[in-house]
Design brief:
The chain has helices at about 5-10, 80-100, 105-115, 125-135, 140-150, 160-175, 175-195; strands spanning about 15-20, 20-30, 30-40, 45-50, 65, 75. It is α+β, with helices and mostly antiparallel strands. The chain is elongated, with a radius of gyration of 19 Å.
């Protein structure tokens, strides 16, 4: 994101956080949501995303995102000269920011996850679904998912899932409220990383 666009976005969205290609709102209800601006030499592709803060990671990811279709989600440099490009991006984001802010609901987030059977095949999505269910107090449903994931042979790159399942299985069995406190602690770790 160039300096001119960054200044314009900070001015237009004082409540938003800008980092790298992301502009996002929140945190609210354990989530942040916003846009990812993918700069190319021909224009800017725009993706909408929601990020669950209880999913520990080194940075934001686009696991729960959708690149908007062309031409709606693309600012074409050929159509706009210099400063007009910045104005077009700001105007587009302004017109669509309410829609992404409305996604800051954990219940809605879980409903969206559960309505996408293909996404639910992804082990990271399954884990996030389980963690969200814990935060919603749906411990039995979360435990079924966690037990299922625990029984899987996960590749080396998914050791975080295995470790979280191991810890949560024991806690959910003894004291489900402690599982919620644990997940909220993971959320605080992520907020600290993102400086929220």
């Amino acid at each position: 994101m160039n300096a001119e666009l960054k200044v314009a976005l900070k001015e237009a969205f004082p409540d938003a956080i800008l980092t790298g290609p992301y502009i996002y709102f929140g945190p609210k209800d354990h989530l942040v949501s916003g846009f990812c601006l993918e700069m190319t030499r021909n224009g800017i592709y725009i993706s909408e995303f929601v990020y669950p803060l209880f999913k520990r990671s080194d940075q934001l990811s686009l696991l729960f995102s959708e690149r908007l279709p062309y031409p709606e989600g693309f600012v074409d440099y050929e159509r706009w000269e210099g400063n007009k490009r910045v104005d077009e991006v700001v105007n587009w984001l302004d017109a669509n920011s309410q829609r992404v802010k409305e996604k800051l609901s954990l219940g809605r987030f879980v409903s969206e996850i559960q309505s996408h059977p293909v996404a639910l095949k992804n082990k990271w999505v399954q884990m996030v679904n389980a963690l969200a269910l814990i935060l919603l107090g749906e411990y039995c449903k979360a435990r079924v998912i966690i037990q299922y994931l625990s029984d899987q042979e996960l590749p080396k790159g998914m050791m975080q899932i295995s470790e979280e399942c191991r810890v949560l299985n024991g806690v959910l069995e003894c004291n489900p409220d402690k599982a919620r406190i644990l997940v909220e602690g993971w959320e605080q770790e992520m907020k600290a990383k993102l400086k929220l």
